[in-house]
Structures are given as structure tokens and as C-alpha cells.
């Protein structure tokens, strides 16, 4: 959400610096969990903070005074409305709707470009694995079959990547996708270590070794080969076991592509996302 807010906010508005890009964002929601109220709340907080009325983002600081609450209710409604108009939302309920959206996206992008005077800067696809189990259960299309109602897991991935590549040729933009783990280990406390072995092309699996205090097993997360060849940057985000801030969830981010031996701990709240030590 913070990436979307950075795009839809202007760089400057009525003499106040907001540091935004004033560009369009298109959000494709595949798991139907996106909360527009959370986006609007974060946007309001960002506007208030830029005007000097926001509460500091310290993890342990809580201000419940009436003056603080009054300050948080004041924001530029004109700026808020103009920014929200730059956020374009699409919801899909299955792979057929997702592929249909991609195939018609060129016309919608062109329409929005003509209406706003600039094209979409950021395309966000939330949870590309939302239909994993439904597509996996679907029968594969037999060779020479004309049944267009049958889509396999592999064919959905192939078509999706092909359509996105076609769109980027005509509408250059950043594409940000998220994917929740289709298979997860049952241990709450674990350490993720990258496997040192070569990844076989046939497996199409991202393999890691997961260790815990009582057991160790191989963790494999499915990622089709067509996505592996298409994705240029990849980050693994998971909950951290750090109990330093019990009232704030701490997350750990690790660069997988390009492979960097770096991991950052961060937390997120209404004021934004912040690196913690």
C-alpha cells in the first residue's frame, strides 16, 4: 500500500511537499482481501504527517490526548480525492476473469491514459497464486482439443506472463506482484536457509532448508518456470521471531533475486513502513 500511496500522491500540493509521483496505479486483486478503507486511512495519515500534524512513528509512543486526535481528523479532502482517483482497482474471482482482464487491459490502460493525461506507472497484482489449488485440480487440455473452458495450472501461468509481456511493450510500467506460500511448514519458529544445490529445471521449485529446534525438513514453494524467467527481482517476506517490540509485528525481508546475503527487519503501521534495528 505504501508503494501505491507514493505513486498517487503529488510531489507538491499548495506549497506542501508530499514526495509523491502523481501517477496512476492499477491494482488487480486476486484473493479479494484488499481493504480500500486501509488504503484511505494510510493516505490520510500520510497527508496529515506531511502537514506536520502527524504523530511520530516511534514504536513505543502512544498519544491519546484530545488535541492529538483532533489533529488527525484534519486533512486536505481535495488532495485526498484527487489522489484516490489515480488508484484504479480491479477484482478477479478466478483464472478466467484474470486472463480476460489481462487480454483487455490494453484498452483500459489507453482509456485511463487519455482521461488522466498520463499512463499507469505501477501495475500491482496481489496474490498471483490465489487460484493455485483450483487450477491444479483442473484437467489439462488434451492435444488438439478445442475446449477453451479447460485451463491447467501451467497454461494459466504461460498465458498470464505472455499477456503481461505484450502489455509492457505498448505500456511500459513497473509490475509488482505478490504471492503467498502455497505450502507452509507447521513450525512457528524456524530458520530459512537457501539451498546450496543447483535448482533443477524440471522441478520448478524454489527449495530451501527449514530448521527448527525439534525437526528439519525441505521446504519447497511452487513457482512456474515461466514466472522464474520473467521476474527480475524477488524478495521473501516472513514473520520474524524478534520479541523486542511485542506490540508491533516484526517482519524479515530477504533478497532472493538478485541473491544478496542481506536481511532487513521492518514493521508497518498507519504511519508507514520502517526499518527496525
UniProtKB/TrEMBL annotation:
Q: Which residues cross the membrane?
A: none
CDD domains the UniProt entry points to: XRCC2
A GO BP annotation: double-strand break repair via homologous recombination
Q: Name one GO cellular component term.
A: Rad51B-Rad51C-Rad51D-XRCC2 complex
Family matches, as InterPro entries: P-loop_NTPase, XRCC2
Q: What is this protein called?
A: Putative DNA repair protein XRCC2-like
What lineage, starting at the top, does this entry show? Eukaryota, Viridiplantae, Streptophyta, Embryophyta, Tracheophyta
Amino acid at each position: 500500500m505504501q508503494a501505491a500511496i507514493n505513486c498517487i500522491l503529488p510531489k507538491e500540493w499548495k506549497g506542501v511537499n508530499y514526495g509523491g509521483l502523481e501517477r496512476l496505479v492499477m491494482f488487480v486483486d486476486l484473493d479479494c482481501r484488499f481493504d480500500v478503507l486501509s488504503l484511505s486511512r494510510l493516505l490520510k495519515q500520510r497527508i496529515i504527517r506531511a502537514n506536520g500534524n502527524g504523530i511520530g512513528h516511534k514504536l513505543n509512543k502512544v498519544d491519546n490526548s484530545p488535541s492529538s486526535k483532533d489533529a488527525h481528523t484534519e486533512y486536505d479532502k481535495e488532495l485526498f480525492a484527487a489522489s484516490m482517483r489515480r488508484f484504479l482497482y480491479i477484482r478477479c474471482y478466478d483464472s478466467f476473469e484474470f486472463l480476460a482482464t489481462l487480454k483487455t487491459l490494453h484498452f483500459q490502460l489507453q482509456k485511463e491514459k487519455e482521461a488522466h493525461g498520463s499512463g499507469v506507472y505501477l501495475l500491482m497484482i496481489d496474490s498471483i497464486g490465489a487460484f493455485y489449488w483450483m487450477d491444479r485440480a483442473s484437467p489439462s487440455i488434451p492435444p488438439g482439443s478445442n475446449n477453451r473452458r479447460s485451463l491447467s495450472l501451467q497454461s494459466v501461468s504461460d498465458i498470464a506472463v505472455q499477456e503481461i509481456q505484450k502489455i509492457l511493450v505498448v505500456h511500459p510500467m513497473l509490475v509488482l506482484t505478490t504471492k503467498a506460500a502455497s505450502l507452509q511448514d507447521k513450525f512457528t519458529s524456524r530458520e530459512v536457509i537457501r539451498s546450496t544445490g543447483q535448482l533443477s529445471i524440471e522441478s520448478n521449485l524454489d527449495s530451501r532448508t527449514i530448521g527448527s529446534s525439534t525437526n528439519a525438513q525441505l521446504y519447497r514453494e511452487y513457482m512456474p518456470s515461466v514466472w522464474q524467467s520473467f521476474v527480475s527481482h524477488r524478495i521473501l517476506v516472513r514473520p520474524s521471531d524478534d520479541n523486542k517490540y511485542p506490540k508491533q509485528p516484526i517482519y524479515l525481508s530477504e533478497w532472493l533475486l538478485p541473491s544478496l546475503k542481506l536481511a532487513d527487519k521492518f514493521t508497518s503501521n498507519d504511519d508507514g513502513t520502517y526499518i527496525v534495528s
